[in-house]
Every structure is written in C-alpha cells, then in structure tokens.
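haha ok so turns out i had the wrong file open the whole time. this is the CORRECT one, sorry everyone. sequence first:
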Amino acid sequence: MNENERKVWLETFDERTHLYGRIICAVALVMLIGAPFVMGAYLGAMPNIAAFGKGFLAIGLVWLVSCIAEYLIYVPMLGAGGSYLAFITGNLINMKIPCAINARDIVGTKAGTHENEIISTLSIATSSLVTILVLAVGVAAMIPLQPVLQDPALQPAFENVVPALFGAMAYKYYRKNMNVAVWPLVIMSLLFIVVPSLVGSTSFMILPSGAIAIGIAFLFFKKKRMGRM
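then structure:
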C-alpha cells in the first residue's frame, strides 16, 4: 500500500467510524432513556413526567461538568473508535482507560495517531468482551459465593480494590516525570484530607488536578526553555 492508498483508506476508516459510532450511540441513548418508559407503560406504572424532568435536571447538572471533562480528557487518548466504544460500554476509569493505555505502551503507538486509535479500539473491544464474560460468570456464581463475598473479614479488601489498582498503575506513569506528578498528588491528597466530603466528587476534581499538572508542566517547560537561551 503506497502513501496515497493509505491516506484514502484512513479517510474511509474515519468516515465509517464516525458513521457507525453515531448510529450506535443514538440507538444506545434511545434504549437507555426509553427502557424505563417502555416498562412503565407495559406495567401500567408510568412515572410523573414533571417529577422525572426535575430529577433528571438535578442529576444532569451535577454530572455535566464531569461529562465534559471526561470527554476532553479521554477522546484525545482513545481516538474516535475507542471513544465511541468506551462511552457506550462504560466503566472507563476502572477498565477501558487502563486497558487502552497498557495496550498503547506495549505496541509503542503515540496518542493522536491512527495506529493508536486502532489499538485503542481493539483493546477496548477486548476489554468489553472480557468484562461481559466475567460478569456472566459472576452472576451465575453469585448465589454459591454469597457467604464468601459477605464475609466481614474480606470487606476491607473489597473497599480498597480500586485505590490499590490505580495506585499501582499510577506509579508507572508518575516515575516518568515525578517533578510534574508529585504536585497534583500532594495538593489533591491534602485537599481530600482537609475536606473529606470531596472524596465523593472525584470526577469533578479531575479538572483542578489536571489544571495543576498542566500548569506545573508549563512552568518546567518555560524554565527549561529559558535556561537554553
């Protein structure tokens, strides 16, 4: 494949990715929003539309900032195909993002390239299939394993699975540039200690922590550039 053929193929790939992604997103959105109303109509228990609207707006406004922040942060990392698939299947922070980043590091692709987009899409698709399989097995084994899962001795472990997972993964990236990583980590840790109620709003705290990291990186870049002059 020469360069011209490659360019044409990539343009076709982008067009079809957006076409299929938009169609599937629209279908998923209609199904997610429509399912409660279909069940309500079938069972004769339709919700009060005014009450539903107020509840939807209250929750929607709370999550609006988080949704915008996640979109701006994750889409450049995943590309179009990976983003469509990740936002449809969900569980981005716990599963999709770590899987895509790990796959990118193994293959050696760079964010913003078509190669990275293809790798992200394949890795997220694999993650989604594995998640569905594990959930199916988990649901089937839920009753037999219920006494074990409800054992009080195991509850502290379940409560710290996510911090342990991301702590181990974060260090891999922190050590690449500790000068930039340490400041957001220290500042946000102190903020969560002083204001414990913010622990429940970690999605919103992506914005200030990201702004701190960008600001620190810019200061180091500017200092390094001035040192060369």
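The longest helix spans residues 3-43.
again sry for the mixup
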